[in-house]
Amino acid sequence: MMKLPPKLNPNGWDEMFSNKGVRNSYRKVLQSLQGLTPENLSQKQRQASDFFMNQGITFTVYSDDNQGIERIFPFDIIPRIITQNDWKEVELGIAQRLKALNLFLEDIYNEQLIVKEGIIPAVLISTCPHYIHEVHGIKVPHDIHVHIAGIDLIRGAKGEFYVLEDNLRCPSGVSYMLENREITKRIFPEMFATNEVCMVANYPMLFHNILISLSPRNISNPNVVLLTPGIYNSAYYEHTFLARQMGIPLVEGRDLVVNNSKVYMKTTSGLQQVDVIYRRLDDEYLDPLVFKPDSVLGVPGLISAYKTGNVALVNAVGNGVADDKAVYAYVPDMIKYYLNEEPILKNVPTYQMSNKEEREFVFANMGNMVIKETNGSGGYGMVMGNKATEKELEDAKIAILNDPRNFIAQPIIQLSTVPCLIDGELKLRHVDLRPYALCGPNGVKLVPGGLTRVALTEGSLVVNSSQGGGSKDTWIVK
């Protein structure tokens, strides 16, 4: 029989166990697991790894010399379970948040009332590297700037949810959510059947319907494409997977051409007009005539076609101003300002390094803080105060003083834990959750699941795959 973890998470919330024993939501799963021998479980772990290998489910890790290394995405076979009641709070909170963020983006690229009324400092927007002046005043379909969002959540010491960050540009990982579910159903068919697990497989259909609804041409079958940077991108597997699942062409910049402010795809039967582009390309690479002149990934003239309204881009250009980690601190104020509501989901307390008093407080408490670059991602450039050396802390202080706008600090929160199969035994590891929210003309829809990312190293709070993290299937149980 499989061994249970020897101890609980001493400073946080464990999602399978409480001080009174196994939580109700996990009882059936634990019973199924305890009916298996360590050899059975190890075999299932190998089966999962083989599936990922055969499917080519990989990501790229970049080293200091900028060399990319292809790796199989680590997967833990023990599912993470979230109850329907908890999920309802997540659904309502993220829907509320995205309504406010869409209103903020519409406002900040037009009248900027939130700045004029002093809710958000003007300097915060003007110094944001992802505020794109070139699209100021643009009209986007249905006033929706964020069509797909991956909002990162963590659970605090009492199980309460916090928003860790908003990913509103080109959020990745949804293919892993879908593939994780497929492999779980294969290796645990009986366990899956005895738990009422909500479906995630309809995500491609839901997203495709939103893409079609954005077409500027009123035609029955608009042309939708997925624009990828190409095979060397770290998320290329996901690009191919989603294009295949939605039944849309996967294109690179060289496959598209702009003529008379309209975008066309080159095909063997001639040029076909493109109506909607799901782009997995960062803003600065989209159009060499507007942004980086040396970009060979984008399409010359694309922004002209976009501004004219002849093509829709998903997500909209310029969303980075709303998921800047310094602007993140003001999202609760946005919710109150635009919706006249109290935030359902809390932010993690955030200190602005451009504020002298907050900076001095952080410097005096560096051992309890995590330092983040305001526009960093993937866990790169992050300093965990409780793990850092004296030199690393001093270097962080120098970097902050040289460019305070580029950094924020947050108190280190002990993430919730879930059991993982490590060396044939259940061991507790820290997790976060990235649910995927789709925004269309009919409102915000969350697929009932998400990507649970796991810090596989004992004691680590860094869940990013690029930093040695893995993932789990996420079950929302009825």
Question: Can you characterise this structure?
Answer:
This protein has a five-stranded mixed beta sheet. With 478 residues, the chain is of the alpha+beta class. β11 and β12 (262-267) form a beta hairpin. The model has no long low-confidence stretch (mean pLDDT 91).
Cα(first) to Cα(last) distance is 28 Å
**Strand order, biggest sheet?**
5-26-25-22-21
Strand percentage: 15-25%
- Percent helix, as a range, is 25-40%
Number of separate strands? 26
SS field, number of helical segments: 15
Low-confidence stretches: none
Largest sheet: 5 strands, mixed
Set out the fold topology.
Elements (H helix, E strand, L loop, with lengths): L16 E2 L2 E2 L4 H8 L3 H18 L2 E5 L5 E5 L2 E9 H25 L4 H4 L5 H5 L21 E3 L1 E4 L5 E5 L8 H14 L1 H6 L8 H11 L10 E4 L8 H11 L3 E2 L4 E4 L2 E6 L2 E4 L2 E4 L22 H7 L3 E3 L5 H4 L1 H4 L2 H9 L6 E2 L3 E2 L3 H9 L4 E5 L9 E2 L5 H13 L4 E5 L5 E6 L2 E10 L1 E5 L2 E4 L4 E4 L15 E8 L1
Parallel strand pairs: 5-26, 8-16, 9-10, 9-14, 14-15
Antiparallel strand pairs: 1-2, 3-4, 6-23, 7-8, 11-12, 12-13, 17-20, 18-19, 18-20, 21-22, 22-25, 23-24, 25-26
Helix pairs in contact: 3-13
Protein name: Circularly permuted type 2 ATP-grasp protein
InterPro entries: ATP-dep_Glu-Cys_Ligase-2, CP_ATPgrasp_2, UCP005522
Pfam families: CP_ATPgrasp_2
